Amino acid sequence: MSCCVESVSHDAKPTVLIIGAGFGGLGCARQLVKNGATKVYNVVLVDRKDTFSIGATWQFVWNSRLEMNDTQWPLKKANLPGVDLRVDMSVSKWLPSEKKVMFTNNTEIVYDHIAIACGVVPDASSIPGIETTVDICTMRHVERQKKEMADLVEKAKTEKVTFCLAIGVNPYKCPPAPFELSFLVDEYVRKAGVRDNVRVVLTCPVDYSMPPNTKPVVLGALEEQKIEFLPNKELAKVEDNTLHFKDGSDPLECTVLWCVWPIRAPDFVQESGLAINPKGTVNVEDKVSNTIPNVPNAHIIGDACRVPFGNASVPKAGEFAWKMGMSVADAIAGQKKPADRSGTCVAEAGFGKGLVISPNFSDVCNDPENGKPKIGIDKTDEGTEKKKASTLEWVQIAFR
């Protein structure tokens, strides 16, 4: 079977290929429009889907505040003049040494610069049985979450039940998410009038999976709602909705069990010959432009990369991915600037309340030897409204 090989250059302009139209890819493409690079480059943005969705909105679906369609936006409507957007295209192989990407539709694109913004994929292979559970970071599981919550309430009307959210790996996408969902489950069962019959548990494979200075506030809020937090509970296996821990402690039998599954970069990254770190992702070389070691004109953005500092790394979050994309776009255009890796995350804490977390990793990226992260946290009584506003702000930036 023959392939269609493209350089995409009908006017001798070099090609910038962006793989993935999530936060990182859209941020990169949008900045290439804004900094004028689309006038000197053919910019091609490719995604395996035809819609953009924000995982932070899915909780509005399983607790019946939104429909699933309300959390998706057609990529064709993205505000990207001068960008060649191609949807429903999946990568089959990436050949960095040849500067070529092959797709499952028998198309090949040869590029001059590439930005890998492909995100990560769930990989249940390291924890036997976890594949039977809900993955809170997987879109196709949202309707299952909705059904399981309704079933939990019905059962809790007549007997004691246990809901558990188990973090299977660290790091993971969106660090506040498991804590936030635990608060929302607590709210759900309280509103249903069955909270006295529901044990709500959150397990974590490390002592705490968010920045240390947020710990007193977050754990204090969990305690107020009588949500049990079990730290240092690394999962050995899941069997019949029961958690088994590597520390040999008693198994935890659950009525409803949701998890944060392990993640890794997609197959085409794993098989490209790049150095893959133990977390299944790619360490960047330059923390501002997210270059890939030993691969010229190649950058990696967002969840598929790791930006290390000390024993930690810049968290996997949409706002950071977008700003990584902006930095990469400026570097490609020859306009490299100091990195902005500041952000604001609003986590719902139930009944309209919220926690506003304000991380800033700019100094870490701009001055790797001396830079330190800065993390702020505040409580708010307008958590739900602020959550909606901050989420929709990104849609407006990308699509209007």
Detailed description of the structure:
With 400 residues, the protein is α/β, with parallel strands linked by helices. Helices cover 24% and strands 28% of the residues. The chain has 9 helices and 28 strands. The chain has helices at residues 23-34, 59-62, 142-156, 177-191, 215-224, 267-270, 318-332, 362-366, 383-399; strands spanning 4-6, 15-19, 42-46, 51-53, 72-74, 83-86, 91-95, 100-103, 107-110, 113-116, 121-122, 134-135, 161-167, 198-203, 228-230, 235-239, 242-245, 252-253, 256-260, 263-264, 282-283, 298-300, 305-306, 308-309, 312-313, 345-350, 353-360, 374-380. The strands form 9 sheets. Strands 6-3-2-10-22 form a 5-stranded parallel β-sheet, with helices on one face. Strand 13, helix 4 and strand 14 (198-203) form a beta-alpha-beta unit. Helix 1 packs parallel to helix 7. The mean pLDDT is 95.
Short description:
The protein has 400 residues and is α/β, with parallel strands linked by helices. It is built from nine helices and 28 strands.
